Amino acid sequence: MRRLLKNRKFAVGMIISIVFLVIALLGPWFVSSVMQVDPRGIDYDAISAPPSPQHLLGTNHVGQDVLAQLIIGARGSVTVGLLSGIIATVIAVLVGTTAGYLGGIPDRAINAVVNVLMTLPGFALLFIIAGYVQEAGILLIAVVIGLLEWPGGARSIRAQTMSLRNRDFTSALRTVGESTPRIIAVEVVPHLGGVISSMFLKAVVAGIFMEASLAFLGLGSTSEITWGTMVSQAQTGGAILRGHWWFFLPPGLAIALIGFATAMINFGLDEITNPQLNARLNARTRQFNREQRRRRALAEAGGPA
Amino acid sequence: MSTTPTPPSTAEDVLLEIRDLDVLYLGTEDSSNVKACSDINLSVRRGEILGIAGESASGKSTLLNAMTRLQQAPAVTSRGHVIFHEHPGATGVDLVDCDDRAMQRFRWSDISIVMQSAMACLNPVIRLRDQFFDVLRAHDRSLGRARLQDRSTELLQMVGIMPDALNKYPHELSGGMRQRALIALSLACDPDLIVMDEPTTAVDVVMQRQILNQILRLQQELGFAVVFVTHDLSLLLEMADRIAIMYGGRIVEVADGSTISENPQHPYTRGLREAFPSLVSERGKRHGIPGSPPDLRRLPSGCAFNPRCAEAIELCSQVRPELTALSDSVAACHVRRIEADDTDARTILEEAR
Amino acid sequence: MSDTQKVVPSTPATISPAPLPKRARGRGGSFLLQRAGFYVVTAWVALTLNFLIPRFMPGDPAQALALQITRQTGAQLTPEMLDSIRTLYGDPNTNLLEQYLSYLGSIVTGDFGIAVSRYPTPVIDLILAALPWTLFLVGVSTIVAWVVGTGLGVIVGYRPGGKLDNWLTPISQFFSSMPSFWVALVCLWIFALTLGIFPSSGGYDPSVPFEITNFWFLASVLQYGALPILTSIFVGFAGWLFAMRNMMVTTVSEDYVTLARAEGLSNRRVTFRYAARNAMLPNITGLATSIGAILGGVVLTEIVFTYPGMGYLLFNAITTKDYPLMQAIFLMIVLAVLIANFIADSLYVLLDPRTREN
């Protein structure tokens, strides 16, 4: 763990992610007890007001506090992201390990299905389903997103499982007569940690993205606040036309920050598991060689010691 | 680039001298650096075949990359010299001081390499012809297409490949053909030195024999020197003029091929000698060396080989033996030194202090 | 989704690139034939989903649709129109298989029904009018983003840990984490509304005659397309940069690159012909995998700029609950994605001789 945190990219990504998680968890309490603001409450004296001491991030076109909405929205967006990420990851692990471990015909069949689903544009499937299910809540949206997101992860998990399958410890267990599900659960899955965590993080962000996109298309939840619905409201409320940046910039930046944070975590994990990718080692090598050259040139100029 | 004032070479015919060379693998901080080669002193004479043998992780490939200046992050040469004499008797150039641009002058026209896996060494997406042309053109821009074609054909014929292979992509050739094509490529600019890193491990035994014979024949004809790196000592015994044995990042013995073959000194060399059956002699008894190669991050104190050595004495885990000249070998072993010499364990221990 | 970089393989080591099987070796032709077969199957799956989804929704969508048309337009539906709606959205009186066959029949003949929101324009007409605009946006922005991203990836990946890498790589990651529609809004706000450099909406200058041969018309298309295209490039290039960077870093230590260096080839030749030429192959496969995501991003961008493409059409279809139009757009997006995949496959065959093995 200490080695992980020494990687600057990983550390930065972790800190941002944890901050967002805390906001998602404690945000509503913070808004109601500390800020004492109703995120849906309307301040008739401040409609589309720019940031001020009363409203740190200003208000939107109906007079709601943007900061309060942003904090409440974190819960909505993060919930969709996490829930869809968990669903997608669980399916991907089940499907990927089964296919990779069994091999043969079941593997080929599963792989064919995965390939078809991967090629179908998930976004198009999402809007067509959401289009029929009008007025879906965020939980339903999260479930649908999760059901669409798993094939990519299943592919990489399958590939990893296939390589694990042939290692000594799994073949040993097979000969002892251990049952297949047990071998997968106890021996294979723990070795897939890297792949699974990276896929999970990507799925979480993709979930947040998809929910925001749906909201923007007008297919989002009408009752809950998410970052997506905020941007969508800003657009329909004419915030852009009037240049009310405080209303539409923060939610988009929040989404970008979460995407950035998870990308950095994955980047850091890659560097740690694959030293070749480690930028720091490369930079250190170049620096060492530069200094070495200078030292040697000096030593030579001073004559052989 | 600079020329290092070299003390007069011991011999006129020295081509490449490695002096006091250390190679580090850098970690993310200084405390995690690993020294993969230490105090390497070795010279290559013109036209000789020098073998370097050792188990995996003995530092032999690291050494090879350092002497050809092909090492990549995180490997760095932290100390020492690699002095190259372009012409007999000429003042040497220290390759360690050369940057990429300065090295360009020596690459391929003086020093070329043949690596282990031919499949991995050939660019998979361009035809063999283009890979030959690229090399030839890089060293002589004036060559026209016809000359390039002729020379490539000639090179392939030297290793017994039909010229139509030039039209092929690497994956369309057999393993043996690829390996020979690689050797042909290494001859392209008439180098003085060809460094070969396990050039025959990726092919079957019959092909291995063929390729070795070819290398020996070409070497006789063209007179280049060869540094041949392998884990297979028996291979070297057949072809090398001199052999250096590496263990734990150090050279532990250097001697003529015949000495290593008949009268190896270092216990590790003896172990290696028995671990591989000779290609010519009938299958004799084989003993592996007990234990496994040391972890370079945690080398045993004293002689790195002492935990695996049947002859080790107390001194071996206390003081690291230096290379010392014995009757016809140079080896780093206390036991041999004490046997051959007038000194004893106590003197060595005191010297070390 | 507009999250291109999440689809592009981030590390060659952990994510196998795309559904392009490495062992699918045959001659280039038979390899492509095999791929084409796969895409036909995928298209069929999409068609079937399109058939099933409305039939699994609660209520009777066909009935609702007929009512909606009458309510919105006041027009009486002719029996033929009712028939066509039944074919596409379900008829409780015929069995599912019969419905399925006649559904496939009408789709194959290009009959997607009638657009409710623009009654009585056939859906296919609306689609055909919108499609070229979207293809233009997607085509130009994808190519530029790919070239720019891959090119920068070569430069950054050549010196991992250098100044450029330490700054450009994380910053571009941040850029690519922005939702496309949000970037579009910001661009609209800055460049069109505040600075007034580009027009804020539409696909061409309405005061210029709509003729494909007219120079001024084409110039206005470029001018109006600039912001949507820039938005898509901005969101898209970083994914390619990151993937290419990582591939470069690993490829640079491949033996054939080391050998090329040992051979004394010029730095440029080693970097491009030996390292980059091989490192870019996964980025071609990535093109195939992420085209769906790119299209999703462009669709949302179009909405922001009221661009007359498929995205804007989709937005209208959703707000007016025009199901026939929505379904047709769905099928078109799938089709476009499959064709783009096939193009990427062909490109791959051209660039990697190993797929052409005899």
Provide a descriptive summary of the structure in words.
The complex is a heterotrimer of chains A (305), B (353) and C (358). With 305 residues, chain A is mainly alpha-helical. Chain A has helices at residues 2-6, 8-35, 66-102, 104-119, 122-132, 138-165, 168-176, 180-188, 193-217, 227-236, 245-273, 279-301. The longest helix of chain A is centred in the N-terminal third of the chain and has 37 residues, at 66-102. The mean pLDDT of chain A is 84. Chain B is of the alpha/beta class. Helix content of chain B is 31%, strand content 21%. Chain B has helices at 60-67, 100-103, 118-121, 128-139, 145-158, 175-186, 205-222, 233-239, 257-262, 267-275, 334-340, 345-352; strands at residues 14-25, 34-45, 49-53, 75-84, 93-94, 111-114, 193-197, 225-230, 242-247, 250-256, 324-325, 329-331. In chain B, a hairpin with an 8-residue loop joins strand 4 and strand 5. Mean pLDDT of chain B is 86; it is low at 1-9 and 279-284. The two termini of chain C are 38 Å apart. With 358 residues, chain C is mainly α. Helix content of chain C is 72%, strand content 0%. Chain C contains 14 helices and no strands. At the A-C interface, helix 4, helix 5, helix 6, helix 9 and helix 10 of A face helix 1, helix 2, helix 7, helix 8 and helix 9 of C.
Short key terms for the protein model shown above:
heterotrimer; B: 353 residues; alpha/beta; 8-stranded mixed beta sheet; 4-stranded antiparallel beta sheet; 12 helices; 21% strand; disordered N terminus; C: 358 residues; mainly alpha; globular
- Kindly report the greatest chain-chain contact and the residue count on each side: A-C, 72 and 79 residues
Order of helices and strands of chain A: HHHHHHHHHHHH
Q: Outline of chain A, from the CA principal axes?
A: flat
The helical percent of chain A reads over 70%
CA radius of gyration of chain A is: 25 Å
Q: Calculate the terminal CA-CA distance of chain B, rounded to whole Å.
A: 39 Å
Largest sheet of chain B: 8 strands, mixed
User: Treating each run of at least 4 consecutive H or I residues as one helix, how many helices of chain B?
Assistant: 12
The overall average pLDDT of chain B, rounded, is: 86
Query: What is the first-to-last residue Cα distance of chain A?
Result: 46 Å
Low-confidence stretches of chain A: none
Strand content of chain B: 15-25%
Number of extended strands of chain B: 12
Low-confidence stretches of chain B: 1-9, 279-284
Strand order of the largest sheet of chain B: 6-7-8-3-9-10-12-11
